[in-house]
């Protein structure tokens, strides 16, 4: 069987590198600024220390709204116009943030960055699907994600390095430069991958029907809500990480190293899941990961409560490594499980699912982040509460299983 639909105009290695670079802009835009959050907030007149966390979370809000736009748009206009629109918004957002004189302008810039980055983030999968199918597509996406995994690990180090040599605005200048270089590479080297005869007229009705189908299907809705709950806990950690490690544990410039260790736990989980999912199945791995993470979170919360919210650094790192590894297992499987009933509307269904889960995550993540009180209690409670809610939601999904695999693996 020929897995390639039509020959790529660029070499396989360059194609993978280009897709990974486009995907990595999201992680770079989030994680590179973590070491600078306090400094940015102070200079732009943030009223409270926790207000600077909005610089991270507001980008996710832009991603949420954008995901519902670019998928259908790329089906109508072609892949490249949708990506051009996304990059344009991202670059404008970078300029706003670069020259911001108050927190409001900064947050507007960050929202535009998120709204723009939703373009390449959504369309990448469609571009790969246009070129490859079956195992060949899985191979490409695996290589893309392998490269992408290392960006969250090194991005805070890059941000910290820039801070040691220059002003925090240089981070946004670097993002602007990366965006321009990636856009130029994409423009010059990759041809349009969606033939005119395969394009679908834009229809609000099509989007509405996809929203209605996602929300009316127990499996897709339940796993989408679970994704939102996982992301909310992770977002609460992400927005609080700089304050926890640099302020509470006084790690200073060592913060990127500890952040990198935790980021690699998620990457390791993705690798392990890829090796085990064929043997044990998505439901089994997800079920045990949720049980382990929830029980450990509840027990660790009680321990943290007993020590006044200040556990030793080694205990905090051990807990976070375990939880993020479990989340790494669950995240990929929940995405696949939520998409199982939506194969006939995969493109727009994926966009709706991504937007809905992110809209659940952002307000919850903001609530967790803004609850930071100089201890790790808000973050740990976020993991514990989200774990309990995920178990309840997944029990609701599996109590009336709608797929043979779910039925065979039900609790």
Automatic annotation (TrEMBL):
<feature type="transmembrane region" description="Helical">
    <location>
        <begin position="346"/>
        <end position="369"/>
    </location>
</feature>
<feature type="domain" description="Major facilitator superfamily (MFS) profile">
    <location>
        <begin position="15"/>
        <end position="399"/>
    </location>
</feature>
<dbReference type="Pfam" id="PF07690">
    <property type="entry name" value="MFS_1"/>
</dbReference>
<dbReference type="InterPro" id="IPR050189">
    <property type="entry name" value="MFS_Efflux_Transporters"/>
</dbReference>
<keyword id="KW-0472">Membrane</keyword>
<feature type="transmembrane region" description="Helical">
    <location>
        <begin position="375"/>
        <end position="397"/>
    </location>
</feature>
<feature type="transmembrane region" description="Helical">
    <location>
        <begin position="257"/>
        <end position="276"/>
    </location>
</feature>
<feature type="transmembrane region" description="Helical">
    <location>
        <begin position="221"/>
        <end position="245"/>
    </location>
</feature>
<keyword id="KW-0812">Transmembrane</keyword>
<feature type="transmembrane region" description="Helical">
    <location>
        <begin position="111"/>
        <end position="128"/>
    </location>
</feature>
<dbReference type="GO" id="GO:0005886">
    <property type="term" value="C:plasma membrane"/>
</dbReference>
<protein>
    <submittedName>
        <fullName>Bicyclomycin resistance protein</fullName>
    </submittedName>
</protein>
<feature type="transmembrane region" description="Helical">
    <location>
        <begin position="82"/>
        <end position="99"/>
    </location>
</feature>
<dbReference type="InterPro" id="IPR011701">
    <property type="entry name" value="MFS"/>
</dbReference>
<dbReference type="GO" id="GO:0022857">
    <property type="term" value="F:transmembrane transporter activity"/>
</dbReference>
<keyword id="KW-1133">Transmembrane helix</keyword>
<feature type="transmembrane region" description="Helical">
    <location>
        <begin position="171"/>
        <end position="190"/>
    </location>
</feature>
<dbReference type="InterPro" id="IPR020846">
    <property type="entry name" value="MFS_dom"/>
</dbReference>
<dbReference type="InterPro" id="IPR036259">
    <property type="entry name" value="MFS_trans_sf"/>
</dbReference>
<feature type="transmembrane region" description="Helical">
    <location>
        <begin position="54"/>
        <end position="70"/>
    </location>
</feature>
<feature type="transmembrane region" description="Helical">
    <location>
        <begin position="12"/>
        <end position="34"/>
    </location>
</feature>
<feature type="transmembrane region" description="Helical">
    <location>
        <begin position="140"/>
        <end position="165"/>
    </location>
</feature>
<keyword id="KW-1003">Cell membrane</keyword>
<feature type="transmembrane region" description="Helical">
    <location>
        <begin position="288"/>
        <end position="307"/>
    </location>
</feature>
<feature type="transmembrane region" description="Helical">
    <location>
        <begin position="313"/>
        <end position="334"/>
    </location>
</feature>
């Amino acid at each position: 069987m020929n897995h390639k639909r039509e020959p790529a105009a660029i070499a396989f290695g360059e194609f993978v590198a280009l897709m990974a670079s486009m995907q990595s802009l999201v992680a770079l835009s989030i994680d590179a600024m973590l070491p600078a959050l306090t400094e940015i907030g102070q200079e732009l007149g943030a009223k409270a220390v926790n207000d600077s966390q909005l610089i991270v979370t507001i980008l996710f809000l832009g991603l949420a709204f954008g995901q519902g736009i670019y998928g259908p748009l790329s089906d109508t206009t072609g892949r490249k116009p949708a990506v051009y629109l996304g990059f344009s918004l991202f670059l404008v957002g970078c300029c706003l943030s670069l020259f911001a004189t108050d927190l409001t302008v900064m947050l507007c810039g960050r929202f535009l960055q998120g709204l723009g980055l939703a373009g390449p983030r959504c369309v990448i999968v469609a571009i790969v699907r246009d070129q490859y199918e079956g195992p060949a597509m899985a191979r490409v996406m695996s290589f893309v994600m392998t490269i992408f995994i290392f960006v969250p690990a090194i991005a805070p180090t890059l941000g910290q390095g820039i801070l040691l040599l220059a002003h925090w605005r240089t981070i946004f200048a670097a993002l602007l430069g990366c965006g321009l270089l990636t856009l130029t590479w994409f423009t010059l080297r990759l041809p349009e991958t969606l033939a005119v005869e395969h394009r679908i007229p834009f229809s609000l009705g099509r989007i509405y029907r996809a929203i209605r189908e996602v929300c009316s299907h127990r499996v897709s809705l339940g796993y989408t809500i679970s994704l939102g709950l996982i992301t909310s806990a992770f977002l609460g950690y992400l927005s609080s990480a700089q304050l926890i490690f640099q302020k509470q544990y006084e790690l200073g410039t060592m913060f990127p190293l500890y952040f990198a260790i935790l980021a690699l736990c998620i990457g390791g989980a993705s690798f392990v899941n890829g090796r085990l999912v064929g043997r044990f199945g998505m439901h089994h791995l997800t079920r045990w990961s949720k049980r382990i993470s929830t029980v450990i979170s509840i027990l660790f919360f009680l321990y943290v409560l007993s020590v006044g919210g200040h556990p030793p650094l080694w205990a905090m790192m051990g807990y976070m490594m375990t939880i993020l590894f479990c989340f790494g297992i669950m995240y990929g499987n929940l995405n696949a499980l939520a998409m199982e009933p939506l194969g006939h509307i995969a493109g727009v269904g994926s966009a709706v699912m991504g937007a809905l889960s992110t809209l659940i995550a952002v307000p919850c993540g903001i609530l967790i982040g803004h609850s930071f009180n100089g201890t790790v209690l808000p973050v740990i409670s976020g993991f514990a509460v989200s774990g309990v809610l995920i178990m309840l939601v997944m029990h609701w999904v599996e109590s009336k299983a709608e797929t043979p695999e779910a039925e065979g693996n039900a609790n």
